[in-house]
Structures are given as structure tokens and as C-alpha cells.
Amino acid sequence: MAMISTARPPVAGLSQRLSMLIVLVALAALLFGVERFGSRILVSLLAQAIIVSALAFGVGLLIRVSGLVSFGHAAPFGLGAYGTVYALSGAAPLPPEIGLPLVVMFVTLVFFLIGLVISRLEGVAFSMLTLALGQAAFVAATKFRSLTGGGDGVIIDMPRQLYGVHADVLQSPYGMFVVGVALLTLVYFALNIAERTQLGRLAVAIRENEERVRFLGYRTRVLKAGVFAVSASLAALGGVLFALYQGFVSPEILHWTFSGSALIMAILGGTSALWGPVAGAFAFFFLKDGLADVTTHWLAVLGITLILVTIAWPSGISGAVQFLLARVPALFAKGKGR
């Protein structure tokens, strides 16, 4: 059987390592700078951005690995948030420290089963079906008032401590920002390792030519459903963090517009690097906040900005950064040649 080489060019590998190093240094500087010099508004924006970036991370991962676009990832985000409400309530049979991971695992399992069904579809059909599923979850959340509080939402009964951390820390902007950065960093490195495994390379091969992978004897549907489930688990993690930080959950987080915002973040950040959607989430939040102070038509300006970024840098912020870093070895080579 002929083997397809998956080796990357040395320059591309170097640019990826440099971009990873820059991201780590930027995160360390950001954590230090926010604690010392950040205003309350800035820290609040960063906390919101790190929470929603988990959702954008899930959407971007699905695009990156499977080439599929989801308009319904607000559903796992909302299920994670409402699952947190139940895990922290007196009706929960298990301690919150056990219940919260089980919430993410339950959402992952549900969307794995859903993925087994909808993974047959591609392109617009897949996107529209995810949109329908997301809106079905939104309608269910507004109708079942006994469970979700309906349109009024539900207030979370926060415990005094969670995982040995006081609840006030989790509901403070800086505390949630640190927790969010730590969790997403762990997720980032886990996914970075997973991409280099045989299953990770096989998932990319399915994206490129699923029919040929089937011809080689692989069952593609299970792996596609697995990728869909992992992307949903990231969104569910964001929902758990959202519920812990806000202490309140309403059906608004299940609406399709929230999924659309996450998709914009993923496109803005780009999916050429794993960290791209996270960068897109931060850019989206600060653009939104800055434009809202200048004009009431900030959505139109944001849309135009997104179009310009897509035209100038089709691979988004991460693609632009990697393009610039790929030129670094050439610059050093020119310097040595003089």
C-alpha cells in the first residue's frame, strides 16, 4: 500500500514553533500585565473573551479538521451551562467537583451520537442541519420553564468553594480569566498532540478525500462523529465557565446568533493554527467594544472589517502571523549572506 508523506517543510514547522512560542510569551505577559495594570473594564472584557473563545475554539477545530461549518454550536455551549445549573443544585446526586466534568462528558456523548447521524452530510446541508438542531435546543429551553426558567432564565446556587477555590474567585474577572487561560492552554496542547497521531492525520485525510480513505478500508463516519463531539466538548467547557462566572443562565446563549458570532471569531482568527479562533475571539470582543463606543452601527463596521480581513488574509490572523514568521528564516539567510 502506498504511503502518503505527511512531513511538513522545515520552514513551515519553524513558523509553527515560533508562533506557538509567541503565543505562550503573549499569554504570560498578558496575565502579568492584567494583574498589575489592567482596569476593571479591561479585565472584564478579557474574562468574557476567554470564556467565549472556548466556543470559537470548538467551531474552529471542526473547520480545521473536518472542513465542516457549524451554525449550531451554541447548543453544546448552552447544554454545558444548563448542566452546570443542575450539577450545582441540591437535586444533583453527585458533588459538583464530579458533576461538572460529567456534564462535559455527557454533552460530548450526546453530540457524538448526533454526529453519527449528521456526519453523512457535507457543506450547506450539514450547516443547515446544525442550525436546525441549535434552534430546536433554543426553543426547548424557552418552553420547559420548570427546568430552564424559560425566558426569565435561572439563577445558579453557587457553593462556597469549588475544587478548593472560593466561589468569589471564579466569579471575579481576573480569577475567571486565569482559570480560562489555564484550561484552554491544557486543551491546546492536548489537541496539538492529538493532531500528530495517526487518528489526527486520518481525520485530515478524510477532510481532503473521504472516498479514497473509505477505499483504503477505514470507517470514516465514526471518526467524523468523534471530531464533531470533541468540538462540542470545547463549546460545553465554555458553557460551564460561563455559568460559573455569570451565576445566571438564560436561553439567549442558545440562539443561532450566538453560534454566528462564534463562527465570525473562528473566521477572523483563522484555522491555519489551533490558536487562531482564540485570537479571533479576543479581536472580536475588543473590536466590538471599541466600535460600540464610536458608533451605534458597530455591527456594520464589524462586518466590513471581517470582509476586508477575509480578502486580505484568507487564513485570518493566525495565517497572517504564520506568513510573517515564515519570512524570518529568509531574512536571517540574507543577513548571513552579506
Automatic annotation (TrEMBL):
GO cellular component: plasma membrane
Location of this chain's protein in the cell: Cell membrane
A single GO molecular function term of this UniProt record: branched-chain amino acid transmembrane transporter activity
TM region(s), chain numbering: 46-63, 98-118, 125-144, 174-191, 222-244, 264-287, 299-325
Membrane topology of this protein: Multi-pass membrane protein
Sorted UniProt keywords: Cell membrane, Membrane, Transmembrane, Transmembrane helix
Full protein name: Branched-chain amino acid ABC transporter permease
Biological classification of the source: Bacteria, Pseudomonadati, Pseudomonadota, Alphaproteobacteria, Hyphomicrobiales
